[in-house]
């Protein structure tokens, strides 16, 4: 099935300049599974999003059809066809 | 050309000069990343920088055109193979072999590169050390912040960490021994433990590799047996607290230190900015403050002082208040190179 990942401007340089990734994912699909596909294609993008334990970086938010994934099941959040994952840096830093 | 790299909590600045008087300061490179580690290899020349984005994590980048362009590998240059994650690179240390580069990290670990710093592998002997569970975190985090490869023997490396102290290997990193005999840990019930000290910085001159100088979390020390034992050289300094310790590029007996009043009072004594220099390996010290300001209510961090390799030697330091001072005459006189930068956490200088 197909899902869409929307990237913020600051991360497009590590995704061949793309703002939107359309990915074909095997079912059953989870957020972590999508990020694994992202990692295979754009490893530098993946490590902006997750550390080497595949833990989501604390100050990066992943909105799954409008809901931040940590209010759902985190990386294990199940996805349906045409899910939109919007990645946004959180409000942090000084 | 002289190159001065200035790592701050919000990016890297690169300053160039032909005469070490007039500086062209450019940046920020890698804005909004914390730059705790930078190295300049004048043999290539090449600049290596450890960056840490609060959003997107840490990395190591290299430039062979003095910062015009930066290269970052697709895969993480430094990554833990086990259940740990890199938080920050605290030290990038060059060796006599241009391909071999060490990285000291948070959490406390040592990584080794054999491809000039593009990729690193964990030095497992230190990571699996039985003491590791007891290494603690100071305010700055638990880190190997000092890496001193031996100038002649690639099997010998000395590291320092906070907390934990000094460790040495003589077999290329397979086994490590704590080397803190005589270094005080006033904050522990046993003030002279085998390990657990909060060592802030260790410095060594390549022409005298058995001589080490150490700035401790209270205490300034010298070793004449490559870290086997330590003796105090704090007499003659106004205070034994501080972070920086630097050796002159051509004289193993000349060292520079930036005293800070105390753990509980992290300003230079009386708010007077002063570098202290010893020309006799720490037996006596002289304050150097010509051109440096009073009312300096800030501090100099562990890697925020350095020397270049020129003659006479250049000495440089940066402050948490975003100022960088330089001396082109071994510390006799100083000028401000730049101000209003973010907190300076590391500086490195070289001729390129």
Automatic annotation (TrEMBL), chain A:
Superkingdom, taxonomy of origin? Bacteria
Name assigned to this protein: Molybdopterin converting factor small subunit
Automatic annotation (TrEMBL), chain B:
* GO BP, one annotated term: xyloglucan metabolic process
Coiled-coil portions: none
CDD domains in alphabetical order: Sialidase_non-viral
Q: Which InterPro entries match?
A: WD40/YVTN_repeat-like_dom_sf (IPR015943), Xyloglucanase_GH74 (IPR052025)
State the protein's name.
Photosystem II stability/assembly factor-like uncharacterized protein
């Amino acid at each position: 099935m197909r899902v869409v990942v929307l990237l913020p401007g600051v991360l497009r340089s590590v995704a061949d300049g793309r703002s939107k990734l359309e990915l074909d994912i095997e079912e059953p699909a989870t957020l972590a599974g999508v990020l694994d596909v992202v990692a295979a294609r754009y490893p530098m993008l993946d490590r902006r999003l997750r550390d080497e334990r595949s833990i989501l970086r604390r100050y990066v938010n992943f909105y799954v059809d409008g809901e931040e994934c940590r209010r759902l099941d985190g990386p294990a959040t199940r996805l349906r066809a045409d899910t939109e994952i919007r990645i946004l840096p959180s409000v942090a830093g000084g | 050309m002289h190159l001065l790299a200035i790592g701050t909590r919000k990016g890297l600045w690169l300053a160039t000069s032909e005469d070490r008087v007039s500086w062209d300061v450019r940046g920020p490179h890698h804005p909004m990343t914390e730059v705790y580690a930078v190295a300049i290899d004048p043999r290539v020349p090449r600049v290596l920088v450890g960056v840490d984005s609060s959003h997107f994590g840490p990395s190591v980048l290299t430039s062979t055109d003095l910062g015009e362009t930066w290269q970052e590998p697709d895969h993480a240059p430094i990554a833990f193979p086990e259940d740990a994650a890199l938080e920050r690179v605290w030290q990038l240390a060059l060796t006599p072999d241009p391909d071999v580069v060490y990285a000291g990290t948070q959490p406390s670990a040592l990584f080794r590169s054999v491809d000039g710093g593009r990729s690193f592998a964990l030095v497992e002997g230190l990571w699996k050390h039985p003491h590791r569970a007891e290494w603690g975190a100071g305010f700055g985090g638990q880190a190997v912040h000092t890496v001193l490869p031996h100038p002649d023997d690639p099997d010998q490396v000395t590291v320092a960490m906070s907390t934990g102290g000094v460790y040495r290997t003589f077999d290329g990193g397979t086994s490590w021994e704590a080397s803190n005999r005589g270094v005080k840990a006033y904050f522990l019930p046993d003030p002279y433990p085998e390990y657990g000290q909060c060592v802030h910085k260790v410095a060594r001159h390549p022409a005298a590799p058995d001589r080490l100088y150490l700035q401790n979390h209270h205490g300034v020390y010298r070793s004449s047996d490559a870290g086997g034992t330590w003796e105090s050289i704090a007499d003659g300094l106004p205070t034994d607290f501080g972070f920086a310790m630097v050796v002159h590029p051509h004289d193993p007996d000349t060292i520079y230190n930036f005293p800070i009043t105390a753990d509980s009072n992290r300003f230079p004594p009386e708010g007077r900015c002063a570098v202290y220099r010893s020309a006799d390996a720490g037996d006596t010290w002289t304050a150097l403050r010509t051109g440096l300001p009073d009312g300096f209510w800030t501090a100099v961090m562990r890697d925020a002082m350095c020397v270049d390799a020129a003659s006479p030697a250049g000495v440089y330091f940066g402050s948490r208040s975003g100022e960088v001072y330089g001396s082109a005459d071994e510390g006799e006189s100083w000028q401000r190179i730049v101000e209003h930068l973010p907190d300076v956490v590391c500086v490195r200088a070289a001729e390129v």
